[in-house]
Amino acid sequence: MKQILILLTVLISLTAKSQSSAIVYVPIDYSVIGIYKPNQKTGFYLGGRYIFSVPAQYSYTTPYSYVNRFGVDVSLKRGTSLMGGGCFTDAPSFINTKFIPELWVRSNLVQLFTNKDKDLDLTLMARISKEFYYGLGLNYPL
């Protein structure tokens, strides 16, 4: 299921006509975030989480994935953007889902130092909300 989620995120970002797209992995909570920017200033992000669970004695559960975050990506300056206005959820529940506001700071490391925006780039992200998370990924222009 993890491979399906990653493949789906890659295909969406490759088939959409955007200025740039990125895929970021957040190792602390097993999330994959796909970022789509139709222009150079604004875009949106969508993330999914993969859960490993141990089955209880009388119930059968398997590892599963679900969408756990979404929001808006706004560029501040070349190579740096702010991902906010979004929500994050810890547990997937259709009845009592608690959404937590989140704010990410994203830097494209090659763009930040060389001012080249048409090359493959490394993305480093840091979340400054309820808990500190970091993410690493690739940013690629289309």
Give a structural overview.
The protein has helices at residues 2-15, 109-114, and strands spanning 20-26, 31-37, 42-51, 64-77, 80-88, 100-108, 121-128, 132-141. It is mainly beta and 142 residues long. The protein has one domain (2-141): Porin. Strands 1-2-3-4-5-6-7-8 form an eight-stranded antiparallel barrel. The chain starts with a helix and ends with a strand. The model has no long low-confidence stretch (mean pLDDT 76).
Architecture, according to CATH? Beta Barrel
Number of helices: 2
What shape does the CA trace take? globular
Q: Summarize model confidence as the mean pLDDT.
A: 76
Q: Give the strand order of the largest sheet, numbering strands 1, 2, ... along the chain.
A: 1-2-3-4-5-6-7-8
Let me know the number of strands. Answer: 8
The CATH top-level class label: Mainly Beta
Quaternary status of these chains?
Answer: single chain
Largest sheet: 8 strands, antiparallel, barrel
Structural class given helices, strands, pairing? mainly beta
Q: Stretches where pLDDT falls below 50 for ≥5 residues?
A: none
Strand content: over 45%
Helix percentage range: 10-25%
Q: Distance N terminus to C terminus?
A: 26 Å
Question: Topology of this protein?
Answer:
Elements: H1 2-15, E1 20-26, E2 31-37, E3 42-51, E4 64-77, E5 80-88, E6 100-108, H2 109-114, E7 121-128, E8 132-141
Antiparallel strand pairs: 1-2, 1-8, 2-3, 3-4, 4-5, 5-6, 6-7, 7-8
